[in-house]
Design brief:
The chain has 73 residues and is mainly α. Helix content is 53%, strand content 0%.
Length: 73
């Protein structure tokens, strides 16, 4: 009969005094991080739209960096 192997997770170094590690149910910062990322992407598209408007309607001249900004977005 094979012996039951119990695996215990531990960190690379011990935690600081007063901190209890929680490997079973760690805190999740995914949803707030996704929200912040979405806000910044929206702001980026707003600035890209303003840049395209200014270059096409006001300056009436585009340059290679305009295409690079569009591709990067």
């Amino acid at each position: 009969m094979a012996a039951k192997l119990q695996v215990r997770f531990s960190g690379a170094i011990p935690p600081p005094p007063g901190v209890t590690p929680n490997f079973d149910n760690p805190t999740n910062i995914g949803p707030p991080l996704l929200g912040v990322g979405a806000v910044f992407v929206a702001i980026m598209f707003i600035f890209l739209a303003i840049r395209i408007y200014v270059k096409t309607k006001i300056v009436r001249k585009s340059s290679p960096d305009d295409y690079t900004c569009g591709i990067a977005a």
